[in-house]
């Protein structure tokens, strides 16, 4: 189950093909949980760390860099989708590069904080990324991952595996969005631990009064 | 909200008053999730650690000691309820003592592993326990906590707080079971971190095919 080259290829191809629809959804703030809860939770968590240089993993169309630039944070964004990186460059606010998680450019730089916002979508590339990432962080640097809360995300059997997605709530035009690899909470914690990341904090951003969190946010540090 | 002396007192008094009903429910294996999933998950996790000496925190009527004694594991059980400790002593399998989490006896001993199975029910006493416990573990010793999975346990707003309980599913006789203090997952992780415990693993025991885990199991180590 974990290794599925076809699914990994569908992720890359799907995000490239649907880059324009995705950029429109993000820029129009059409994804309700992001507008209501998770964008602010991410930015709050970033500002607490007071980074000068930030690496945005899976930057997409670049909204995070544009939000952080006025606060004096220098953002380098990478994304495997050339169409999304183009969109990010046109809008500005950071330095954007096309790059695969499994093959980070050696000259990427050294950062205070690496962030991934709902962008660790595959299986093998994520393993490669977590193995290589510490060399791009300064001593004491941290990793911040925001992702779907595994227990809010799914009514399927609670087990790791590939899942189909739907963008119906925010994009009429996309009938075949890319798949993603679901991990249980236990599996996220194991994944970090396997690559010698130490979990410092686990946050569960939620709308006020909600019975379920909107996301989970891991803050980790190389061991 | 966190500090509530009345609730803490109701915990102690309630477990003492309902000790016989509780012992009957555990010994009759009437709590479905324990019989189906969580007892085995706990014992498997304990055996992986290969402890020679184990401290059972909130041992209740002592089932865990009786399960582990045949495997050569020496169990010391503590519980705040004298009636439950009496029941445990009568059944044997370990060394059982009445003790409060907030005031562990200095001569308790040194253990390879401390375990708490659905028995960290209050607020302040749990903080005291986690602060004092490292001195009762040998270097490299671990703590294993099994508790209700915060996201499976509640449809209330997802936030820390006192909760009333119901024993209706396994005990007709008890209309007023003791309350317990609900913690979110993020709050459990913060609690461990605040007391210098390092989270090594987070497991989510589930029945096969279940959409939700039956419990969460934290494996931690003093920092």
Describe the structure.
Two copies of one chain form a homodimer. Chain A has one domain (4-222): Rossmann fold. With 223 residues, chain A is of the alpha/beta class. Helix content of chain A is 34%, strand content 24%. Chain A has helices at 5-17, 19-27, 32-49, 63-68, 82-91, 124-132, 185-194, and strands at 53-57, 74-79, 95-98, 111-117, 137-147, 161-163, 180-182, 197-203, 216-222. The relative contact order of chain A is 0.18. In chain A, strand 4, helix 6 (124-132) and strand 5 (137-147) form a beta-alpha-beta unit. Chain A binds chain B through residues 149, 151-152, 154-159, 184-186, 189-190, 193, 198-204, 206, 209-213, 216, and chain B through 149, 151-152, 154-159, 184-186, 189-190, 193, 198-204, 206, 209-213, 216.
What topology does this entry show?
2 copies of one chain form a homodimer.
Chain A: H1 5-17, H2 19-27, H3 32-49, E1 53-57, H4 63-68, E2 74-79, H5 82-91, E3 95-98, E4 111-117, H6 124-132, E5 137-147, E6 161-163, E7 180-182, H7 185-194, E8 197-203, E9 216-222
Spell out the key features of this protein:
homodimer, 223 residues, alpha/beta, Rossmann fold, seven-stranded mixed beta sheet, two-stranded antiparallel ribbon, 7 helices, 34% helix
Percentage of β-strand residues of chain A:
15-25%
Order of H and E elements of chain A? HHHEHEHEEHEEEHEE
CATH architecture of chain A: 3-Layer(aba) Sandwich
Number of domains of chain A: 1
Largest sheet of chain A: 7 strands, mixed
The rounded distance between the terminal residues' Cα atoms of chain A is 29 Å
Shape of chain A: globular
């Amino acid at each position: 189950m974990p290794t599925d080259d076809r699914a990994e290829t569908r992720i890359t191809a799907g995000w490239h093909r649907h880059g324009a629809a995705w950029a429109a959804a993000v820029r129009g703030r059409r994804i309700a949980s992001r507008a209501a809860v998770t964008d602010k939770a991410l930015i709050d968590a970033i500002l607490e760390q007071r980074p000068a240089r930030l690496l945005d993993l899976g930057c997409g169309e670049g909204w995070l860099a544009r939000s952080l630039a006025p606060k004096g944070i220098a953002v380098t964004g990478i994304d495997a989708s050339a169409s999304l990186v183009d969109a990010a460059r046109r809008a500005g606010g950071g330095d954007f590069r096309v790059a695969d998680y499994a093959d980070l450019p050696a000259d990427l730089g050294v950062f205070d904080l690496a962030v991934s916002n709902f962008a660790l979508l595959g299986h093998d590339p994520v393993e490669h990324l977590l193995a290589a990432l510490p060399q791009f962080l300064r001593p004491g640097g941290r990793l911040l991952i925001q992702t779907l809360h595994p227990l809010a995300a799914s009514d399927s059997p609670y087990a790791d595996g590939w899942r189909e997605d739907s963008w119906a709530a925010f994009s009429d035009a996309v009938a075949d969005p890319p798949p993603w690899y679901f991990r249980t909470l236990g599996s996220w914690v194991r994944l970090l631990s396997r690559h010698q990341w130490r979990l410092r904090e686990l946050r569960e951003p939620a709308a006020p009064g909600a019975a379920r969190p909107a996301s989970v946010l891991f803050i980790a540090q190389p061991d």
